[in-house]
Amino acid sequence: MTASPDLGTPRTASPELLRSVFRQHAAGVAVITARGERPVGFTATSLTSVAAEPPLLSFGVATTASSWPVLAGTDHLGVHILGEHQQELAATFARSGADRFGPGTSWRTGPEGVPLLDGVLAWLVCRVVARIPAGDHRIVLAQPLLGDPAGPGRPLLYHQGRFNALRD
Fold first, then answer.
1. Which of 44, 81, 91, 126 has the fewest CB atoms in 10 Å of its CB?
2. β-strand 30-35 against 27-28: which pairing, if any?
3. Cβ(72)–Cβ(131) under 8 Å?
């Protein structure tokens, strides 16, 4: 069997192949937050709507992430859909060692003690339903309890290793 000229040369599956393929996939940008002794959060591009009835969503988180110890034990978390005006916020929550809830981040304590970010396109407070082992990550399954979809602007995207805006 030979490779089709328009498909390129196939490569054996590896972490780098997976990363290379998913750099081609544009994804919405979300920030997941939770509260332990202090608030924690991280930028996620793996957010997925799982079911409408009952409402369920999922996202992946590395077990080596600084937020994982809190997410591993919390009952509730926040999901925030970022707007194209929030590239710096996305970068802050993606940066290792950053003061994510410091002076540059506008937030408040929401229902169930969940940290809620201001100025986002939409947010949800969710109850954690399951944490499913998946390699060096966990897939967190969560049920939205309440939220607000009415924030201003257009969504922030992640593509080719950079944050981007939609183009018409």
1. 91
2. unpaired
3. yes
Cα 157 from Cα 25, distance rounded (Å): 10
Distance of alpha carbon 81 from alpha carbon 78, whole angstroms: 10
Dump pLDDT digits (tens) for 13-39: 888 898 888 888 889 999 999 999 999
Q: Summarize the confidence of residues 111-121 as an average pLDDT.
A: 97
List, as one string, the DSSP characters of 133-158.
EETTEEEEEEEEEEEE---SS-BEEE
- Measured CA distances, 84 to 24, 44, 164 (Å): 19, 15, 7
Tokens representing 149 are 């979809």
Asked if residues 26 and 159 have their Cβ atoms less than 8 Å apart, the reply is: yes
What are the backbone angles phi and psi of residue 65, rounded to the nearest 5°? -65, 145
Q: What is the mean pLDDT of the chain?
A: 93
